[in-house]
Task: structure prediction
Amino acid sequence: MKVLVTVKEVAEVADDFEIAGTEVDERYLEYDLNEWDDYAVEEAVQLKEDGPADEVVTVTVGPERSEETIRMALAKGADRAVRVWDDALEDVDLLDVETKTNLLKAVVEAEDPDLVLSGVQAGDDAFGATGVSLADEIGFQWGAVVNALDYDDEENVAHVHRELEGGVEELTDIDLPAVLTIQTGINEPRYASLRGIRQAQSKEIAPKSLDDLGLDSGSIESDLDLTSMYEPESESDVEIFDGDASETAGKLAEVLTELGVAE
Amino acid sequence: MSDILAVAEHRRGDLRDVSYELLTAGRQLADETGGDLHVAVVSGDTESFADDLNREGVDAIHTVADGEEFNHDVYAQAVEALHAELDPEVVVMPNSVNGLDYAPAVANRLDLPLVTDAVALDYDDGLTVTREMYGSKVETTVDVAGDQQAVTIRGAEWPAAEGVGDADISAFDADIDADAGSTVTGFEEVGGGDVDISEADFIVSIGRGIEEEENLPLIEDLVEATDATLASSRPIVDNGWLPKNRQVGQSGKVVTPTVYLAIGISGAVQHVAGMKGADNIVAVNTDPNAPIFDIADYGIVGDLFEVVPELIEQFE
Ligand SMILES: Cc1cc2nc3c(=O)[nH]c(=O)nc-3n(C[C@H](O)[C@H](O)[C@H](O)COP(=O)(O)OP(=O)(O)OC[C@H]3O[C@@H](n4cnc5c(N)ncnc54)[C@H](O)[C@@H]3O)c2cc1C
Result:
């Protein structure tokens, strides 16, 4: 069985930041492996270690910079990586779900995986929709927000738990081929070992352009236009305590005592 | 073609709150597009659900009787068929776990632009959606192209629709192919255990700001000194540092204490869903822009490793 994992490099915003137009100014962004994808990579690597999977391939839509993040996934045990990019994507503020679906579909067609694992959402734009959209597009079955996966090799069925709201899980059987979107907590993502990091250096990251994937620029025309970005207005009149740690703690202690919860 | 279609959600026999919020959001859009508000309810006891959904401002309710519980194949087919019949301008679905399990499929097969997790909608010559990015640190507005769109809305952002309506209720035959490749086999409750944090009056809750499990005893000392109940955000539970019954949030517990002291918690929407009902919210966080301060009553912008020891001293 071949497992394809979608891996996104997400931008994280520093504590203090400035917005320039419809973007957070580049100076305040740090890039990292998307938290949810980290769990998806781990789940795929465990499927390989446990037997059912023969190969784990990652796919990333991202510029060259994202190779650093891709190497992290390779260091954790993925076998090789595909990175899709095109200069035309550089100018898009907000990639819509359809574009991501089109790009990933082309990779699925080239790779022909049995199982696609994807994070529930990306920490930056938080659309939470790509995995299911992709599944529908490529005619795979799917399950969203999966926090337990037990793959039955003989039946070719994934027994999964889908984590619903309010502490309830839904138990579902999903026929392969399938796309599962992976929720945090499904496993314990490993740290990349020094050996893994060294090995990752020699693993393949194959860059693919639109051309390589047989796509034209029409397939990446976004339906979404980001028109403004701003800091949300605070709903509360929060009272911030001033002073050093002992002063602020003193004021907080007073409030807690006044409210009658601690003495 | 300026109608709105909202798709209700239910689970284990009950409509979920977001269903009534969808009616409000849908009505608002229908007023702006000058169309009717259609509501779909799929699977389960659709007749009694339809009665409950018949609130002020709803023009028509379509019941699709196939299936008992949520199944994404049934939902996607039902919404697809209704869309073909009604040709609505916007389909509004919940940004719930199940919403995210079928809405992207609906958008894909109908070739509709999809915007998820909307916190505000505005229709004026086209759809504009307000949504957040970067863990709620920024808000954005997004113009959506095309004549027809799909959106999912965040829970608790619109008030629930009230009153009694006089909607036209009718059964819709969606001609569902029930040969699904996924089958729901049951449900499981998780997160029982020793303590029921939903009963607590004073909660000290810890988030990823604690950095390492070795630092947890510091918070436990505070809990002991103040006779509080310990809870946490999700990553602490994901890491196995605290049991699942301590998790506050959308997929954890909903708590309503007198005081919720959030230490090193950013205030992600799924966390806030579980604690916004607290009488008093207090946040300790190094990041003055952390979204938790937007809902807090009191705050300390500071390092928990400095503040918490001082706080413990105050109570010892
Ligand atoms: C479907 C779904 C369901 C989810 N359900 C839940 C749920 O039920 N509950 C839940 O909590 N999350 C849930 N999440 C996860 C949620 O999106 C966030 O990832 C999570 O709440 C973040 O937890 P956090 O605030 O502890 O961590 P972070 O977001 O990483 O925040 C850590 C905070 O600590 C601060 N900090 C760091 N160091 C210090 C210091 N020394 N002193 C003080 N402050 C410091 C930082 O400034 C930051 O604000 C869910 C996500 C999804 C997609």
In short: Chain B touches chain A through 104 residues (CB under 8 Å).
